[in-house]
Amino acid sequence: MWNEIIYNPTQIIKKYYDIWNLQIGNEEEYYYNVRTKFNETKQPEYLLFLLAKCVKAAVRYNAMGDFNQSPDKRRLGRNPQTMREDIFRVSQLLKNKVELYSTDYSIILDKATEYDLVYMDPPYQGTGMNGGFNYAGNIDFDDFIISLYNLNKKNIPFILSFDGRTENKTYGRPLPDGLNLTRIEINAGRSTQATLLNRKEYTYEAIYLSPVLLQKIDISKPQLSKMQLQTNLFEFETYG
User: Fold this and answer.
1) By three-state DSSP, how is residue 158 classified?
2) 77: exposed, middle or buried (C-beta count within 10 Å: 0-12, 13-18, 19+)?
3) Cα separations in angstroms, 127 against 131, 145, 214, 231
4) 202: β partners
5) Helix (H), strand (E) at residue 109
6) Are 19 and 45 in contact (CB under 8 A)?
7) In this predicted structure, what is the pLDDT of residue 232?
8) How large is the greatest C-alpha to C-alpha distance in the chain, in angstroms?
9) Considering only CA atoms, which of 185, 179, 180, 178 is closest in space to residue 162?
10) pLDDT tens profile 8-56
11) Which domains does the chain have, with CATH numbers?
């Protein structure tokens, strides 16, 4: 999909326009038909429509690797004209400036140097096919930790979004102290699952900064602890 957006923007814009307009008057059933087509063909224009229309724009897969997120029944998805403008801007910004890969994360990390900044947002522990829902696959925890140690060893700065908690309930195994990472909690707002169960609980996601990154931006851990580290991701959202 990203390859089409960057290098064939006119084509995917036209396909999105056609798909979006065909939903009018039969939105929910049409969404599920498009979802089935995507799972069968993996065509990028179908994925683009699903991302624009699904609940919270959150990708979810079942154990078979099929996209299974439901539609947001309150809206039609991003308007084609707005989508057109967004895609053209992205294409202009990234064309001939980026390389796209679809491969194992370890291969990408092997390409990184100390002059790069690596951002990682792997499936959180407990959300993959072996621990719950949301993602079709998972990563091996021990192998991933070795990769983080190797990044530190090569002085490659990185940012990692990896785990979190809901109120006092935490998820997954803690990262080893030997990695010497700085942990920052981000208030992600009301927990969707708790809200559905008529409970008021807040979700906090964790961001980790590598030691060499702190050196590069010249901020120490004591300074971090005194700073306003985060704002609510949904600062202007209200709840009924």
Assistant:
1) strand
2) buried
3) 6, 18, 29, 25
4) 190
5) helix 105-111
6) yes
7) 46
8) 57
9) 185
10) 999 999 999 999 999 999 999 999 999 999 999 999 999 999 999 999 8
11) 2-94 (1.10.1020.10), 105-226 (3.40.50)
Regarding pTM above 0.90, the answer is no
Which amino acid makes up residue 14? K
Query: What single-letter amino acid sits at 134?
Result: N
Tens-digit pLDDT profile for residues 153-188: 999 999 998 877 766 666 667 899 999 999 888 877
Burial of 170 (0-12, 13-18, 19+ CB in 10 A): middle
CA distances 20 to 12, 50, 92, Å, are 12, 10, 23
Half-sphere exposure of 74 (CA within 13 A, CB side): 3
Residue 194 in tokens: 């708790």
User: Hey, is 209 helix, strand or coil?
Assistant: strand
* Burial class of residue 43, CB neighbours in 10 A (0-12, 13-18, 19+): middle
Tokens 């709840």, residue?
A: 239
Residue labelled with tokens 């140097």: 113
Q: Which residue reads 């229309």 in tokens?
A: 53
Give the whole-angstrom CA distance, residue 107 versus residue 87: 28
In a 13 Å sphere around the CA of 177, the CA atoms on its Cβ side amount to: 0
**The token pair that represents 26 in the structure block:** 């039969």
